[in-house]
Write a structure and sequence with these properties.
- The protein is of the alpha+beta class and 368 residues long.
- It contains 15 helices and 8 strands.
- The strands form 2 sheets. The chain has a 5-stranded mixed sheet. A 3-stranded antiparallel sheet has the order 6-7-8.
- Strand 7 (241-244) and strand 8 (253-256) form a beta hairpin.
- Helix 4 (89-104) runs antiparallel to helix 5 (109-125) and helix 9 packs across helix 13 (311-325).
- The longest helix has 18 residues, at 154-171.
- The radius of gyration is 23 Å and the shape is globular.
Length: 368
């Protein structure tokens, strides 16, 4: 296919990708990209593939006549983009030691993966050097390169600092230190839907299973990971509660099982007959997080609510609407499973109204 593409490095959650941007409209692009193992698409970034030679070779095979242009003057070359970070055997051993430490301390799989990738990229910046010879000024130089050349966000920079600190302090036993180049996180207010917008969003979803997924996230203030890991037995009908096992920070908690939610779930269970997980995907496994995001995205586009709405927006809306009912912040904190009151206090900036009766906000949606 004769086409021209821009390519550029992309970092998401400390994982490296190659972003693929066609200069012209290619109707067959989604079909071709789906053939590449690990290829992904998001509304924000478009198509991107894993940052490795195999994915790059597959992309070129699919578009043998294409012209590849590197986007931006201060970006990597096309050849460099498709090359995995190179580190020495000694550096690989250091990364392995950190992974073992994190595993023994029962950190989540996602955290281990993110920290591993961060430390690997840090070591590749100083390829071949003894990890224990690297000092604070060299960490600072690495951070400056990421900020200036790769346009890191504040949170991304913080993730690198956390991974590097963990290696030197928890693995190597060096004294704890405070880095003066840790960025101040921007104080952003969470995106929140009004109750009318929640009604609009849910009412455009015709599929019963998909509708129940969005309703349950909103009605109980769930994180995406908590929704997909919820078991059928976690729906405590007689207590009007849902049990969230091993939420963020591996903490169990309870939240509200709305009356309307219970009715909708009973209908869903009668039709779909889930065996173990509340929402099952292929081969009776848990429903995929990506599928939930796609359900939400289609509902947002169809309903016309705020286009920046994400799955987490429903959780923010749950908390805000409870605060508007007059529920005390400490109870909302418990329902959300927030570790610090500071996390929950952000909702006080978005609402001032209060009502007397405490019920799940879903039960107030009269048009649902």
């Amino acid at each position: 296919m004769d086409a021209t593409f821009f390519i550029e490095p992309l970092e998401l959650e400390a994982v490296s990708y190659i972003r693929v941007l066609p200069r012209q409209y290619i109707p067959e692009l989604p079909t071709f990209m789906k053939k590449i193992k690990g290829a992904r698409w998001t509304k924000e970034y478009g198509w991107f593939i894993p940052y490795n030679p195999d994915a790059w070779a597959q992309l070129k095979q699919l578009f043998p006549d294409a012209i590849w242009e590197v986007k931006g003057k201060d970006r990597l070359t096309a050849k460099a983009v498709a090359t995995s970070p190179q580190i020495s055997a000694e550096q690989r051993l250091a990364v392995l030691k950190m992974v073992e430490s994190l595993t023994l301390k029962r950190y989540s799989h996602r955290t281990i993966k993110v920290y591993r990738n961060c430390l690997t990229l840090f070591f590749s910046f100083y390829a071949g050097k003894d990890p224990l010879s690297l000092e604070e000024n060299e960490i600072k130089t690495f951070m400056l390169d990421g900020i200036k050349r790769l346009k890191w966000s504040e949170s991304y920079q913080n993730t690198f600092i956390n991974a590097i600190k963990y290696y030197y302090e928890a693995v190597q036993g060096q004294p704890r230190k405070v880095y003066d180049f840790r960025p101040k996180q921007p104080q952003k207010l969470p995106n929140v839907l009004s109750q009318t917008e929640v009604v609009q969003l849910i009412n455009v979803v015709d599929n019963l299973k998909h509708r129940c997924i969005l309703m349950l996230i909103y009605s109980a203030g769930l994180r995406l990971s908590e929704l997909v890991q919820m078991r059928k037995d976690d729906l405590l009908w007689s207590q009007a509660k849902v049990f969230i096992k091993g939420g963020k920070g591996k903490k169990d908690r309870y939240s509200i099982l709305s009356t309307k939610m219970a009715t909708a779930l009973r209908e869903y269970i009668a039709v779909y007959k889930p065996v173990y997980w509340a929402f099952e995907g292929q081969d009776y496994g848990p429903y995929s997080a990506r599928s939930v995001q796609m359900i939400l995205r289609k509902a947002v586009d169809k309903s016309g609510v705020n286009p920046y709405t994400t799955v987490h927006t429903l959780r923010h809306s749950f908390a805000t609407h409870l605060l508007e009912q007059g529920m005390e912040l400490r109870y909302i904190q418990a329902l959300l499973g927030d570790e610090s009151t500071k996390t929950t206090e952000v909702y006080t900036h978005i609402t001032e109204r209060a009502i007397a009766k405490f019920v799940s906000p879903l039960d107030q949606l009269t048009d649902l």
